[in-house]
Design goal:
11 strands, alpha+beta, 223 residues
Length: 223
């Protein structure tokens, strides 16, 4: 597995023109909504139970943003650009021997509870080595979250042949300016790594600009 990972990452980094755009996003409203949704969720270990996480919210928001800025949901080939009809989100999961990216298929059409259940199942089977090839091959966009490790920000290597990958850092209390007043908010930094053959700088910036309000006002994702 390490040989395969090494080969793929070396190929991606050496053949894809990477560039990075980052943005700080306030997540206090998202945390509050998470608490409300999980308080009403079925009791754990009962049929239909779920526990929505920040990562589930990010997956949903990324999928919705790809519908708003569909030119990022694309790949480069020698024959031309490939634009995908479906929004299939690959999610980086750490496993004992390395990394694997199980896929939430058609993530833009699914609710947060469904995404949460699917992600829990996929991650569990990924760590047990029980994923089928079609469950981790063929995504159109990747989310990689290291926030749970306290990482403030990072830039990921593109998951070839996808055109972009979103890196998500930890939420932390930071000073923010609102009007002329200084306040404190929970802020996370996200970085969009783009294949410059597929996504221009302005397009990457538009994608983050569309992603940010979905996280800062997350009720808009579920109404």
């Amino acid at each position: 597995m390490r040989k395969v990972i090494a080969r793929r990452l070396t190929e991606a980094k050496s053949t894809i023109p990477h560039f990075y755009v980052s943005m700080d996003i306030e997540i206090d409203a998202m945390n509050a909504l998470l608490a409300q949704l999980n308080a009403k969720a079925p009791v754990r270990d009962t049929p239909g139970a779920y526990l929505i996480t920040i990562n589930d919210m990010v997956i949903k928001a990324a999928a919705a943003t790809l519908r708003k800025v569909p030119t990022v949901n694309a790949s480069w080939t020698d024959d031309g650009m490939v634009f995908y009809d479906d929004v299939d989100i690959s999610v980086a999961v750490s496993i004992p021997d390395g990394l694997i990216t199980p896929i939430i298929r058609q993530a833009d059409t699914k609710g947060l509870a469904t995404i949460s259940r699917e992600m829990k199942d996929l991650a569990g089977r990924a760590r047990a080595g029980k994923l089928k090839p079609e469950e981790f091959q063929g995504g159109t966009f990747t989310v990689s979250n290291l926030g749970m490790f306290g990482i403030k920000s990072f830039g990921s290597i593109i998951n070839e042949p996808q055109g972009a990958i979103l890196s998500v850092g930890a939420g932390e209390k930071r000073p923010v300016v609102r009007g002329n007043e200084l306040a404190v908010a929970t802020v996370m930094t996200v970085t969009l790594t783009c294949d410059h053959r597929v996504v221009d700088g302005a397009t990457g910036a538009r994608w983050l600009a569309a992603f940010k309000p979905l996280i800062e006002d997350p009720i808009t994702m579920i109404v």
